[in-house]
Write a structure and sequence with these properties.
Layout: E1 2-7, H1 11-22, E2 27-33, H2 36-46, E3 50-54, H3 62-65, E4 74-79, H4 86-89, E5 93-98, H5 103-117, H6 124-131, E6 143-148, E7 151-156, E8 162-166, E9 169-173, E10 178-181, H7 185-191, E11 197-201, E12 204-207, E13 211-216, E14 222-226, E15 233-236, H8 238-248
Parallel strand pairs: 1-2, 1-3, 3-4, 4-5
Antiparallel strand pairs: 6-7, 8-9, 8-12, 9-10, 11-12, 13-14, 14-15
Length: 250
C-alpha cells in the first residue's frame, strides 16, 4: 500500500481528491492537512510515502514548505496555477497535477509514484522536462519559513530588515530577532519583490523600508545604516552601488 497525505486548504478539493484516490486499490489515505504548519507536523508524525501537495496554502507556499521538511516523502503537486518550480522538483517531486484533473490523469501520476518509490532519486533533467513548456512563476515570495527544532516560524517579508549570508548560513534579521532560513541569496534575489528588496553585496540583501541612511565610505564606496536597535552598517559593493543609484535615481 502507498500511504498518502493530502495537503490542501480547500474542502471541495480535499473531498474530490480523496474520492478519486479511493478508486485506486493500493492507496491508503492517512491524513489531510489544511496549512503548511499542519503539513509539517503530520508529515513528521505519519511519515507518508506520498504527499499530494497544493502549491497555494494559507500560511506559506507548498514549494517553500519543502525547505523545512525533515522527513521527505515523494511529492505530487496539485494546483490551479501553472508554476515553474524546478527547485521544488529537486526535492523528490514526481508529477504536477493541474486542477481540475480527472481520474485518468491522477492514475498516471500514481503509477509514476509506484515506479519511483522502488527507485532512487529522480534525475533533475527528467523533472525539468515535466515543466519545460510552462511559464515562470510571477508571484513574489512574501512568507519565508524558518525551522527551529520542531517549530516552524513564518517570516513576513515586510518585517524582514535585511538578510545576510555567512559561510552558506543565511539569516533573516527582524527588529527583535533573527532566524536561519534554508535559502540561497541567489534564490531570494530572484524571488523577493525588487521594489522592496535590493542585493547590496554578495553577502547581503536589504529591505528598502529599513534603510536609515546611505553614507559614503572607503575609496568612493558606500554603506547603509539599518533602522535596527544597534544601527547595523552593511557595505554596498561597487557594482551594486551603481545599480542602487540608478534604481533610486540619485
Amino acid at each position: 500500500m502507498i500511504r498518502v497525505l493530502i495537503v490542501e486548504d480547500e474542502k471541495p478539493a480535499q473531498e474530490r481528491l480523496s474520492g478519486l484516490l479511493k478508486d485506486i486499490g493500493d492507496i491508503e489515505l492517512v491524513g489531510v492537512a489544511e496549512t503548511g504548519q499542519e503539513a509539517v507536523e503530520m508529515n513528521e508524525t505519519i511519515r507518508p510515502d506520498l504527499l499530494f501537495l497544493d502549491i497555494h496554502l494559507p500560511d506559506l507556499s507548498g514549494i517553500d514548505l519543502l525547505a523545512v521538511l525533515k522527513y521527505k516523502p515523494r511529492i505530487i503537486f496539485t494546483t490551479a496555477y501553472e508554476e515553474y518550480a524546478i527547485k521544488a522538483f529537486e526535492m523528490n517531486a514526481i508529477d504536477y497535477l493541474l486542477k481540475p484533473f480527472g481520474q485518468d490523469r491522477l492514475n498516471q501520476a500514481v503509477q509514476k509514484a509506484r515506479e519511483k518509490l522502488t527507485q532512487g532519486s529522480v534525475p533533475i533533467e527528467q523533472l525539468k522536462s515535466l515543466l519545460k513548456n510552462w511559464e515562470p512563476a510571477r508571484e513574489h515570495l512574501t512568507r519565508i519559513p524558518s525551522r527551529i527544532g520542531d517549530r516552524i516560524f513564518i517570516l513576513v517579508d515586510d518585517e524582514i530588515m535585511y538578510i545576510s549570508s555567512d559561510h552558506r548560513l543565511v539569516t533573516a534579521y527582524l527588529y527583535d530577532d533573527k532566524y536561519i532560513i534554508n535559502y540561497k541569496l541567489e534564490d531570494l534575489q530572484q524571488r523577493l519583490d525588487p521594489g522592496k528588496f535590493f542585493r547590496i553585496h554578495r553577502s547581503s540583501i536589504v529591505n528598502f523600508n529599513y534603510i536609515a541612511v546611505i553614507e559614503s565610505w572607503f575609496a568612493g564606496g558606500y554603506k547603509v545604516k539599518i533602522k535596527d536597535k544597534t544601527g547595523t552598517e552593511l557595505i554596498i559593493s561597487r557594482s551594486s552601488g551603481k545599480k542602487l543609484k540608478q534604481q533610486l535615481g540619485w
